[in-house]
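Task: complex structure prediction.
Instruction: return structure tokens for all chains below.
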Amino acid sequence: MTMTETDLILFKKVLEKDPLALKEMFLRFQPRMFSFAFRFGQDETAAKDIVQDTFLSFWEHCDGISAPMAVPSYLFKTLKSYCLKHVRLNALRTRFENLDLLMLKEMELAHFNDARNILNDLYFEELNGSFSEAVSKLPPRSREIFTMSRNEGLSHKDIAQKLNISVRTVENEIYRSLKSLKLALRDYAVLLVVFFLSQS
Amino acid sequence: MEEIRELIFKYLDGELEGTQAKELLDWVRASPGNKETLFSLKEACFALNCQQDRKRTDSSKEWRKLRAKIDVPGEPVRRSRWLTLSGIAAALLIGLLGGWAAFRLSDRVPSEVVAVTTGIGQHAEATFPDGSKITLDPCSRLTYSLKDWKNERNVALTGEGVFEVVTNPDKPFTVRTAGFGVQALGTVFKVSAYGDEQESNVILKSGRVRMLLPDADVKLAPGECCIFNNKTRAYRLGKASEIDLYDWKSDELRFEGQEFQEMTGSLYRHFGYTFVLTDEVKRMVYKATIRDESLQEFLEILEAVTPQLVTRTDKESRTVFLSLRK
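Output:
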């Protein structure tokens, strides 16, 4: 994990129990931690609580961390364990009616290992960068569709209506242009695009 | 593939249902590539929505929420005036509730000892916290402490009763009487321990009991009985009669060939009258069963089968005098 000098100073201060440093770290990490928890459990209120609990637990137990550079890793692990607790409790409440979904969720958490730590800025920016890159390389019309969807949250149906074309046309066009980009992109960016294409 | 794709999107949107989850899980398990695909998509989904999700949460507000919960070393704990007031209110409320609870508790202290008592001619049934049961015969008293029940199953008995004990190897069920104890592990047995009788006895119907006698521990087998002399504290084992074994829970009073004098205790407990007998009557032997008959009816029957018997009832002192006509 690579991080800048200022990051290390910040994490060191957090470990020294400096509330201002904690605030800075919170404001920086909270949005993506919320997004992670929300996309994981699909529950907005629960996601907010999970992030609160994560920070609270971190603050109470961070005395045990000696290396400042381990802070994002520790924080992400704590976040994942609270996510896990949340889905397991949910499964328990429904008397394990959907054990298969719980299995999938647990596998998903395992997928986000140290190399995929969303609190690691390098990884996070790469993920976002690949996405932007993939979009920028799209033909203008397809890019328009992506931008509309991302910034305005429109569905394929809405986009098709807005551009006065059929949904099928939207999908076909994007799909064709993406085929040529496929090799240049990282796996998940390709998949993201495929995901996008198929969503309607 | 088309179908799986649909499942994947449902998964990412959190709309996957039970059977679909199984289908998707099977697909994921089918190959490492599939697994990678699904969760890479999840990564992408996260990256895609991260910006948008910012609108759903207010970081500054969330920070203030967290700040109120954490303790910072060396910093005095800040609390708003409202919190202080509510603190006082809470303290008052706790005080009031505490007082009320203490009042209620003081009210309750004696009832921690549970007692079941029967009078003359009365029977009672009681169930213990563990589900064990007792049928109490007349003029008996059974007590136990509810507080100690969690740790040990101890009951005290004067009088007579049939116990049906629920098995619990960790917690033996012990019946204590004035002269001896009976320890059971899950059985049906009858204890008769009236202090005013010459003898007490324990009859075992099924299971196993251990007699805790003053100077010995004796195990009883089903069908056996242990007879304890309340004066000499000696005991002897014997076979219980069949009627004792199979018909001991009824409200009947049975004469089974004992001398009349042995029955006076039972008669007193059944009718509430003291029987005073002349020496000849004491040694008389009857076989009889009393069910719902009143004292009057019982005496009439006695006179009918024993023409020379003279009965006199004194209702004031509640005494029945029996003698033989010379």
